[in-house]
Predict the structure.
Amino acid sequence: MNLMRYGRPAVIAIAVALVLSSCASNEGGASTSTAGAAAETAVAGTINVAGASSQGSAQEAWISAFQTANPDVTINYDPSGSGAGRETFIAGGTDFAGSDSYLSDEELAGTFAACAPDTLAVDLPVYISPIAVIFNVEGVTDLNLDADTLAKIFTGAITTWNDPAIAALNEDATLPATAITAVHRSDDSGTTKNFADYLFQAAPDVWTEKPADPFPYQTGEGAQGTSGVVDAVTNGTGTIGYADASRAGDLGVAKIKVGEEFVEYTAEAAAAVVDGSPLVEGRADNDLAIKLDRLTTDATHYPLVLVSYALVCTEYADAEQGTLVKEYVSYMASEAGQEEAAASAGAAPLSADLQAKVAAVLETVK
């Protein structure tokens, strides 16, 4: 199943309409923290960002809408991957990062070059998306997989499509004896970490490596970035991979077993998992990293989901740059920004409660 998408001109028109409405309702007040902020704060300058390729489609839409409303702003987003994005931000090469993995304790124990001395960065959710298990197998249009079988495919324990474990889950399918090529990310990837976290929790007897950005097994075929995985699956034979659902396109997408049912991804099912998951314990009060519930048996939930974050300084060494970042990220996480991401990238919007939490943290950013 593919999530609904709308044409870019319509998307921008919707966003601009929302912006103008927001500006009118706040006339004479403080900054709106939306794409229309230029009307009141006259933001200008350049923002450089790098990180999660999963955010790529959403960032294109956010940037277009924000720059349309703020013509003196230039935003550059490099979808180099979550790991590369975090490294570049920590080193001071970008103003903030996009990451499908929240900052580790080790990263938080270090310093952030763009941040004011003795201050840290925080994780702010801005993008929620299902991870699609994409496949390209001749003669197969529907595919059911449980966590154990999926784990065995990607660890190399299952090597052909007519393996009895796959056949048992797909009694009505004619499965070929074709060899399986399991495609994973070759770069450090938050999508990989989320995929691994799901399998580590749901199939612990098979997937024994702890979740991390690098793919942990010497199996299958590696590909750079989300686009690389999608291309490898599309152009291969008997291929399977994992990617942000917004990039699934016309490829086959497997249903995963949740409780006693096989569930296809939807934005709503992904959002339901996030809404039912707690914050990570032991972190600063203004850090909104989420510990996702991968073991739900509720078939209205889709536990193979990622939350992608904006990693921002609590205080910037350059206060003017901090103001610019604050305005843009505030727009990304706003109702207008979330509607933009939903329309353009099939993302699941942040709940009103989570939007409010992100906005409250951003109010304190300097």
